[in-house]
Amino acid sequence: MLTQDELSSIEHNPYKADFPLLAANPGLAFLDSAATAQRPAVVLDAQRRFYETMNANPLRGLYRLSVEATEAIDQMRDKVAAFLGAVGEAGSPRSNQVVLTRNASESLNLVARTLGRQVLKPGDDVVISIMEHHSNLIPWQQVCRETGANLVYLRLDDGYRITPEEVAAKVGPRARIVSVTQVSNVLGVENDIPMIARRAHEMGAYMVVDGAQSVPHVRVDVRELGCDLLAFSAHKMGGPMGVGVLWGRPEVLDAMPPFLTGGEMIDAVTEMDAVWAPVPQKFEAGTQDAAGAYAFGACLDYLNGKGFDALEARERLLARYLTDSLAALPYVGVIGPAEGRRHVGSVAFNVRGVHPHDVASILDMGNVCIRAGHHCVQPLLAYLGVENGATCRASIAFYNDKSDVDALVDGLGRVWEVFHGRD
Fold first, then answer.
1. Which residue intervals of 164-270 are DSSP H helices?
2. Are 210 and 133 in contact (CB under 8 A)?
3. d(Cα 353, Cα 103) in Å, to the nearest integer?
4. For this structure, is 376 an active site residue?
5. How confident is the chain (423 residues) per 10-residue block, as mean pLDDT?
6. How far is CA 287 from CA 57, 101, 234, 374, in A?
7. 260 by DSSP, 3-state: which?
8. How far is it, in rounded angstroms, from Cα 347 to Cα 340?
């Protein structure tokens, strides 16, 4: 249980005023940030400012507006690289390691369709975990089917952990690619990526990380993770929708073929051939969302300005309070670790005898927003034997506070009364 000082810290909320939607709806308990986060005003202002002051197609133009648009994207790459710890010995960000996509799903598809097709052959293994989001599962299903490779699953122990023994058993000499989420979007557990990466590299495999649920909530350093490629989305951390990132080690990105072809990703074209532009432009065909990229830079400035470590610590307390509060309800079953300190961002649960869709609909009547369904992890829920193949999911961000969790608990009491009456 949280101490009184810890409870007091999550009662106080200096952040909601920064988010227009939350400020305009003070009675709203938004607990669906794992699907998409709210945007601070500075991000919304930045996106509008781009279109009002520097709206031009980046990269090719030699006039001032186009140059400014290009610089806006370059500055965002620097900020992303620094945020991920992708820096050189002198501390300078390695922005050429940052590829822009539309979202984490596109980033993972890019990897599967380029690296996967390039290195896989019949009999090779692609190793993923049973807790993967469909975005890090279906692309590998498809590429394995095309190449004759095997799709191998890392399973969980009774504590919802991927153990070193499981990794040693599944990541063997035939492994060519290992692709695992750092944080489960349903269970909220954080996987030991450095341990998995060490084994992958010992076996000569590439290590790919789905960071969609980790980068918004925990300090991620790609050097410490030991990964080769990492994908995440801006919209899950307060940035605009439609902006994603694929970070990669230079030698890996250089060796990968293009994903999409067309304008902006070439150096030269003849009637019968083409020469690709260097990374990252090689993977960025067509006009990018320059305004979104600029606004994402403003999002990173905002997070850094608030002190990301402090935001992470606040979220850890909120996750503990959320887990403890749900576990205290006799008609609610938490799906995942019982320890609140093991939940990053998300807690999945079900109300006994009530379908998750009904739970979410009744909660919405009381201005409590949660997610209900299979959360794009159908194999995981089948593996866990979850009734109806669906759960409720409450997910937090630093702009939440104790009152949001309390509103959820009160709402679940109303759900129980609707279906079972008052005790």
1. 164-170, 193-202, 222-225, 250-255
2. yes
3. 36
4. yes
5. 94 97 97 98 98 88 89 93 86 85 98 97 98 98 98 97 98 98 98 98 98 98 97 98 97 95 92 94 93 97 98 98 97 96 97 97 98 97 94 98 98 95 68
6. 7, 11, 18, 34
7. coil
8. 9
In the DSSP assignment, the letter for residue 180 is E
pTM here is 0.95
**CB-based contacts of 130, cutoff 8 Å, min separation 6:** 153, 154, 155, 156, 379, 380, 383
Task: For residues 312 and 333, give the distance between their C-alpha atoms in angstroms, rounded to a whole number.
Answer: 26
Burial group, residue 267, by CB count within 10 angstroms (0-12, 13-18, 19+): exposed
112 neighbors 176 (Cβ within 8 angstroms): no
Token code pair at residue 70: 């290009």
Distance CA 231, CA 248 (A): 9
The active-site residue out of 227, 369, 376, 392 is 376
CA-based Rg of the chain, rounded to a whole angstrom? Answer: 22
Rounded CA separation 315/344 (Å): 8
β-strand partners of 246: 99, 231
Alpha helices in 280-355 (DSSP H): 290-306, 308-327
